[in-house]
Design a protein that fits this description.
It is a single chain. The protein contains 9 helices and 5 strands. By secondary structure, it is an alpha/beta fold. It has a 5-stranded parallel sheet with strand order 2-3-1-4-5, with helices on both faces. Helix 1 (about 25-40) crosses helix 9, helix 2 (about 55-65) runs antiparallel to helix 4 (about 75-100) and helix 4 crosses helix 6 (about 125-135). The longest helix has 25 residues, at about 75-100. The radius of gyration is 17 Å and the shape is globular. The relative contact order is 0.20.
Amino acid sequence: MSQASISTPNRGLFITFEGLDGSGKTTQLKHLAASLESDGHRVVSLRQPGGTPLGDRIRSILLDSRSDSDLGAIAPEAEMALMFADRAQSLRQIILPALADGAIVLCDRYTDSSEAYQGAGRNLGTDRILALHRTVCNNVQPDLTLLLLPPLAASLKRARRRNDRHVQQAGTDENRFEREGDEFYTRVYEQYRAIAQRDPTRVVVFPEEAPIATIAQRILEVVRQRLQPAEPSRHEP
């Protein structure tokens, strides 16, 4: 599927949320979806990994902390490949059809996550991630990325507390990444900062600790500005 196939006048808007687990991005995505729907927009929301039947299976492998013991330690390259397999499926099955139909697509994580977590966190390097993105995802880029980047320690504390609570309540464990140490997450955090500096037009950073409603209002203002009127997106191969 070529990129030209989605560069149409009626194409929707592709918005991604990025940040560490515990940064509040999933909560903010839900708030934005509700606000946009109240404004009369059709919104399609999904997460990565996951969101499709195949993606949900991949998610269960990648995020479950028992995977490394049950399957043997997952190689960084295998982790990277599985992330992109999920992404390719969600693009073909959900994202591109929704954009072609004029919807606003809100995606919880996209390739910036792979660049931060696998490229920097796993030390695989940015070049390998971006090369895979060009090959597997046809270089489809978001129109806007909302990067929630509050202080690292606060994000990790919330993420680990949330996952412990989820294990107790639901019996499922998505704590595999949260078990990584401070050096791993420092690399991830700094790579997110580098991505934002490299692409300031696409990436809008929210670095502060603030009430949920305050951040939600700021995000909504940014998105509304992009919607009135938006110029055709640049999706260069």
